[in-house]
Design brief:
Low-confidence stretches: none
Mean pLDDT: 95
Number of helices: 6
Structural class: alpha/beta
Strand order of the largest sheet: 1-2-4-3-5-6-7-8
Strand content: 15-25%
Length: 207
C-alpha cells in the first residue's frame, strides 16, 4: 500500500508492507519498522531493501517513508527541523492508523540521522542506522556524533569500513557492525541481512 501523509511541510509518502501471517513464528504483528531514505536516494537503496525483507521475515510491519521534498520532486534536502517534523507527523499517522504497538525507527545516511534525532519524541523502542554519516567527507571536525548519541534506546549502526563519511565507535547501548566496502553498503549483503535479523530478534518485544 502506498499513500500520502499530510505533514507541516507538505505531503510525505509511505509504502506499507505487511508480513505474511505467521512470519517470524508470530501470529500477529509485534512491531513496526519505519525506514527513511538518504539525502539523494530513495527507498530502493539495497540496504533499505535488505532491512525491509529481514523485518518482514521477522514478523514486523515495515513503513518506508519518503520525505516531502522528494515527493515534491526537489533535489535539495530539506532543513533538519523540517525533516524531523515531517517524520514525526508520519509516526503519528502510523500509530493512529496502522500500528499502535512498538515502533523501531531506522534509515540510511540522512534517514538514519532523522531516526536518531526523533527517537525520543517519537517514542521509538530502538534505532537502526545504516551508513550513518558521522561527518561530511574530509571534514571530521564537523561531527554529528551528538545526533547518534541522542537515543536512549538500543541503537545498531551498520557501517562500511571504508565509509568516507566516517565510522563511529561503539558505545554503551550502541552496537557497531562493520561491513566490507563503503557508504553504499553493497559489498556484503549477507552479513547486512544477518546483522539486522539478529538485532531485531533481540530488541523487538516478543509480544
Amino acid at each position: 500500500m502506498v499513500r500520502e501523509v499530510a505533514t507541516p511541510h507538505g505531503p510525505a509518502r509511505i509504502t506499507v508492507r505487511r508480513p505474511q501471517p505467521g512470519a517470524g513464528g508470530h501470529s500477529r504483528v509485534r512491531a513496526a519498522l519505519l525506514l527513511g531514505h538518504g539525502a539523494g536516494g530513495g527507498l530502493a537503496a539495497p540496504d533499505l531493501v535488505a532491512a525491509t525483507e529481514e523485518a518482514l521475515a521477522a514478523g514486523l510491519l515495515v513503513v518506508g517513508v519518503e520525505q516531502p521534498y522528494r515527493v515534491a520532486g526537489r533535489r535539495n534536502v530539506a532543513p533538519t527541523d523540517q525533516l524531523d517534523a515531517a517524520w514525526l507527523a508520519v509516526v503519528a499517522d502510523v500509530r493512529a492508523s496502522l500500528h499502535d504497538g512498538p515502533l523501531v525507527f531506522g534509515g540510511r545516511s540522512s534517514g538514519a540521522r532523522v531516526a536518531c534525532r526523533t527517537a525520543g519524541p517519537g517514542g521509538a523502542v530502538a534505532v537502526l542506522c545504516l551508513a550513518f554519516p558521522l561527518h561530511p567527507p574530509g571534514r571530521p571536525e564537523r561531527t554529528r556524533l551528538p545526533e547518534l548519541a541522542a537515543p536512549e534506546v538500543p541503537v545498531l549502526v551498520v557501517q562500511g569500513a571504508r565509509d568516507a563519511f566516517g565510522v563511529p565507535e561503539a558505545a554503551p547501548g550502541r552496537e557497531l557492525v562493520l561491513l566490507r566496502g563503503d557508504h553504499s553498503l553493497k559489498a556484503d549483503r549477507p552479513l547486512l541481512r544477518a546483522t539486522v535479523a539478529q538485532w531485531l530478534a533481540r530488541v523487538v518485544p516478543a509480544g
